[in-house]
Amino acid sequence: PGTKYCVTRQWPLPREQVKAIDDFFESRRKAGQVRESKSPHSAPTFCVKKAQGGWRIVHAYNKLNDATVPAQTPIPRKDVIIDSMALSTIFSALDLRDGFYQILMRESDIPLTAVSTPSGMLWEWLVMPQGLKNAPATFNRCVTHLLRSVRDFAPSYFDDVFIHSRAVDGKSEVEMHKEHLRRLFALMLKHKL
After folding, report:
1. Percent residues over pLDDT 90 in the chain
2. What's one Pfam family here (predicted)?
3. Which domain holds residue 49?
4. Contact between 112 and 162 (Cβ < 8 Å)
5. Is residue 67 part of a domain?
6. Domain assignment present for 5
């Protein structure tokens, strides 16, 4: 509210990080997830070292996030999810890889996602980037909505889905679990998760 443009100047980074950022954006461009931008908005890009090596590319969306009205989306309670699995005897867990990148940005919001790079490029995201204030809530709301028909045996917590089963109606726990996995995978294919 009251903010016209959200601009933070890009700061210099070591050559190794600049290359990692350029390579990252080239791969995202090829995947159709970003495009070059002429937006009046701009957030800087930088790197954080991953524990297992390599770089995590992040954006400093501080000004945009300060101007964003927070989403009022309930976050699932871990204790409720765990309680729902109490009677089950077989479990699987799935991680929705690059989860945020599976959600398309609304066309009118794309310019707000513009990010600069140390090499002088300005990119904007066509999919939801990490770092936006409401991204976790938006992603969680989307996954919860898409998977609601299987939530009795496959509750989700952000990008994690927990499948749990037990023997029912003469079917073994393994048979039930295979059935639950098939139903979940069919739903994920349908919604391109």
Report:
1. 89
2. RVT_1
3. 15-190
4. no
5. yes
6. no
CATH number for 34: 3.10.10.10
Q: Decide if 86 is inside a domain.
A: yes
Give φ, ψ of 81 to 5 degrees.
-65, -45
Q: CA–CA distance from 12 to each of 98, 117, 120, 138, 153 (Å)?
A: 27, 9, 10, 32, 49
Q: What is the pTM of this model?
A: 0.86
Q: Evaluate if residue 5 carries a pLDDT over 60.
A: yes
Specify if 169 maps to a domain.
Answer: yes
What is the per-residue DSSP string for the chain?
---S--B-PPPP--HHHHHHHHHHHHHHHHTTSEEE---S-BEEEEEEE-TTSSEEEEE--HHHHHTSPPP--PPPPHHHHHHHTTT--EEEEEE-TTGGGGSBPPGGGGGGG-EE-TTS-EEEESBPPTT-TTHHHHHHHHHHHHTGGGTTT--EETTEEEEEE--BTTB-HHHHHHHHHHHHHHHHHHTT-
**Tokens matching residue 35:** 């495009």
pLDDT at 1 over 70: no
Average pLDDT over residues 13-20: 96
pLDDT digits (tens, 9 = 90+) for 90-119: 999 999 988 899 999 999 999 999 999 999
